[in-house]
């Protein structure tokens, strides 16, 4: 008798089959039934009778169930029981229905029918099916949990992979930035090298031009010497003729002189008597003038209104020094006015310092010439290097530091005598007067070099005094008795002569401005950790000596204006109200005297001084005073 078995659940739910193994064969069912029978200690209920065909064919296989002999309550005969043999029936499970709900009513309706028909087998099969369903569900849960775990691990892997990709992107960006910075740095270095090559080329061209100029000058000098020799011969011939004529004249004049000598002797005796009386009168007048001047000076110092020396720094020692210097300059100036004809206008101390510096410079140059004469060694390479370093000075910190170190190394080189190196340095710096930016940078270089080579400062200031007398400060007054002509006077105050012609006043004033700018920048230079031996104190002394001794004219006005524009800012920061008093004296005395001259060419400098004082330009830092930190090419890299 065949049994139709159906699962009490749908075959699939939302695409998931109830049977995890759709190719379940008959051997697997037998194994499960045998294991169940062994647990119950009963003979096996099912045995394999017909082998299944292809195991891969889904739900098309049948199996044979052998039932043991048992008695029924029907009216079957005993013969039929003895002869009964069940060969087996084939049951096809092609349409198996599996339900997720174990309490389905349709499944419950089938159970009594099966139990009524076959009780024990159906119960065993039901138990087996139930256990199998539980195992399938557990396996499905395990697979689902495994899939979830695998999905989570895949998510974690993908997240970590994305993080690694992001890190790689960031590292790549950093690498690109570094490569870009290196590329820009290489470009900047190439640009600097290119600029250096251009500078070198310009230097070579300038050297070639200098050599040409020297050769041309030597050729012209040779021509001049030849002309001079020819002219000298002509002069000698003329001189021989003139000597003959003069001898004849001398003989005649000698007779006349003898006659005049007798008459002059009488006149001389009368003149000596008159001169003695005049000298006595001059001594009395000079004594009275000195006494009057001392009285006026003591009154002005006591009142503190008319003398510049009273307006000094707040330290008592400096004030006493300036007052004493003022009185000394006044007394010495009175004596010199009688002895030198009122030619020089300067403080006695300033003239002494100038003389000492010029004497030292003269000794250095004499020693230099002697060394060059006695030695066959050529020192022109050292001179070229010093000149090149000075020409290459610019307004950046790195440039100033590198040029100062290079110059210090040259000055301290044992292979080059100190007199030659420092003398060349002083000459080149004194001739290097350009824009205010270069002037401030030169001031820094001079202070740095002087801190390591102290002799440089006095020699450099001596060169300044030779090039511009107002750096002393000193002024020379024109006097017909002291100078043969106006040209001699101009030469004495610093005018240059070229081919027998004196330069114009405009050119002279341009050079005067440049020298005063360089001197003012040197005075106001302050470097932390380094002492400027010719700093603000010397600048204040210069200002006091200038206002005490020098008259108000075009030259002194230009010198004062340029000095204030360069050093006024630093002097005000140091001396505050005392510097304001100095400016008041300039406004009330110097400018008033300058306007009273009523000469042409004064208006520009008067306007500059008035604007500087009234607009308070000393509160503004002059352009170029603070050095730049780096070159423009390097600043582009940083930006």
Backbone CA Rg: 60 Å
Which sequence of SSEs, written as H and E, runs from N to C?
A: EEHEHEHHHEHHHHHHEHEEHHHHHH
Query: CATH top level of one domain?
Result: Mainly Alpha
What is the first-to-last residue Cα distance?
A: 99 Å
Quantity of strands, as a count: 8
Main sheet record: 2 strands, antiparallel
By CATH, the superfamily of one domain comes out as GLE1-like
Reported by name, the CATH topology of one domain is: Serine Threonine Protein Phosphatase 5, Tetratricopeptide repeat
Helix content: 55-70%
Overall shape: elongated
Residue fraction in strands: under 5%
Low-confidence runs = 1-7, 44-116, 292-341, 631-639
What is the spatial order of strands in the main beta sheet? 1-2
Quickly give the CATH architecture of one domain. Answer: Alpha Horseshoe
Q: Would you kindly provide a written description of the structure presented here, covering whatever features stand out?
A:
With 639 residues, the protein is an all-alpha fold. It has a domain at 316-477 and 486-633: GLE1-like (Serine Threonine Protein Phosphatase 5, Tetratricopeptide repeat, Alpha Horseshoe). The protein has 18 helices and eight strands. It has helices spanning 26-40, 78-82, 105-117, 119-303, 316-339, 348-374, 380-391, 397-411, 418-431, 436-452, 455-467, 486-493, 505-524, 536-549, 554-575, 577-596, 603-614, 632-638; strands at residues 12-13, 16-17, 62-63, 91-92, 344-345, 475-476, 497-498, 501-502. The strands form four sheets. The chain has a two-stranded antiparallel sheet with strand order 1-2. A hairpin with a 2-residue loop joins strand 1 (12-13) and strand 2 (16-17). It is elongated. The protein starts with 11 loop residues before the first strand and ends with a helix. The model is unreliable at 1-7, 44-116, 292-341 and 631-639 (pLDDT under 50). Residues 137-185, 219-275 form a coiled coil. Belongs to the GLE1 family. One of its GO terms (cellular component) is cytoplasm. InterPro entries: GLE1, GLE1-like_sf. Keywords: Coiled coil, mRNA transport, Nuclear pore complex, Nucleus, Protein transport, Translocation, Transport.
């Amino acid at each position: 008798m065949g049994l139709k078995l159906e699962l009490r659940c749908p075959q699939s739910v939302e695409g998931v089959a109830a049977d995890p193994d759709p190719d379940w064969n008959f051997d697997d069912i037998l194994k499960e039934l045998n294991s169940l029978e062994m647990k119950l200690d009963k003979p096996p209920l099912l045995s394999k009778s017909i082998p299944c065909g292809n195991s891969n064919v889904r739900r098309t296989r049948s199996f044979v169930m052998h039932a043991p002999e048992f008695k029924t309550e029907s009216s079957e005969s005993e013969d039929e029981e003895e002869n009964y043999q069940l060969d087996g029936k084939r049951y096809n499970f092609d349409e198996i229905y599996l339900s997720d709900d174990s309490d389905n009513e349709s499944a419950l309706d089938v159970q009594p029918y099966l139990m009524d028909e076959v009780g024990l087998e159906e119960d065993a099969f039901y138990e087996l099916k139930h256990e199998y369903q539980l195992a399938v569900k557990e396996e499905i849960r395990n697979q689902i949990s495994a899939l979830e775990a695998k999905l989570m691990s895949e998510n974690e892997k993908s997240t970590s992979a994305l993080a690694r990709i992001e890190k790689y992107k960031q590292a790549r960006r950093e690498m690109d930035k570094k490569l870009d910075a290196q590329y820009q740095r290489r470009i900047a270095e190439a640009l600097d090298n290119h600029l250096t090559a251009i500078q070198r080329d310009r230097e070579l061209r300038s050297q070639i031009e200098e050599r040409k100029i020297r050769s041309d000058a030597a050729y012209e000098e040779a021509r001049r010497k030849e002309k001079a020799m020819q002219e000298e011969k002509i002069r000698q011939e003329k001189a021989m003729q003139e000597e003959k004529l003069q001898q004849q004249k001398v003989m005649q004049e000698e007779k006349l002189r003898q006659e005049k000598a007798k008459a002059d002797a009488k006149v001389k005796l009368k003149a000596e008597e008159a001169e003695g009386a005049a000298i006595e009168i001059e001594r009395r007048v000079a004594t009275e003038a000195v006494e009057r001047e001392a009285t006026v000076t003591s009154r002005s110092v006591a009142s503190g209104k008319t003398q510049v020396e009273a307006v000094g720094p707040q330290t008592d020692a400096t004030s006493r020094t300036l007052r004493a210097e003022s009185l000394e300059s006044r007394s010495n100036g009175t004596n010199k006015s009688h002895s030198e004809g009122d030619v020089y206008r300067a403080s006695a101390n300033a003239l002494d310092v100038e003389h000492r510096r010029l004497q030292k410079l003269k000794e250095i140059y004499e020693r230099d010439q002697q060394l060059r004469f006695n030695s066959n060694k050529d020192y022109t390479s050292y001179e070229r290097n010093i000149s090149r370093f000075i020409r290459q000075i610019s307004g950046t910190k790195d440039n100033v530091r590198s040029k100062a170190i290079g110059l210090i190394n040259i000055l301290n080189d044992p292979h080059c005598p100190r007199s030659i190196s420092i003398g060349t340095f002083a000459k080149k710096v004194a001739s290097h007067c350009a824009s205010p930016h270069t002037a401030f940078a030169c001031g820094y270089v001079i202070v740095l070099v002087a801190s390591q080579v102290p002799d440089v400062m006095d020699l450099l200031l001596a060169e300044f005094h030779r090039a511009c007398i107002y750096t002393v400060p000193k002024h020379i007054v024109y006097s017909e008795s002291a100078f043969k002509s106006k040209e001699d006077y101009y030469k004495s105050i610093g005018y240059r002569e070229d081919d027998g012609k004196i330069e114009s006043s405009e050119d002279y004033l341009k050079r005067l401005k440049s020298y005063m700018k360089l001197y003012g920048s040197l005075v106001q230079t302050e470097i932390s950790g380094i002492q400027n031996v010719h700093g603000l104190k010397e600048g204040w002394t210069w200002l006091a000596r200038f206002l005490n001794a020098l008259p108000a004219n075009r030259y002194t006005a230009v010198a004062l204006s340029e000095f204030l524009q360069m050093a006024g800012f630093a002097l005000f920061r140091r001396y505050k109200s005392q510097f304001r008093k100095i400016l008041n004296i300039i406004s009330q005395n110097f400018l008033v005297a300058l306007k009273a001259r009523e000469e042409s060419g004064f208006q520009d400098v008067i306007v500059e001084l008035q604007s500087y004082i009234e607009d308070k330009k000393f509160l503004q830092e002059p352009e170029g005073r603070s050095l730049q930190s780096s070159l423009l090419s390097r600043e582009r890299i940083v930006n």
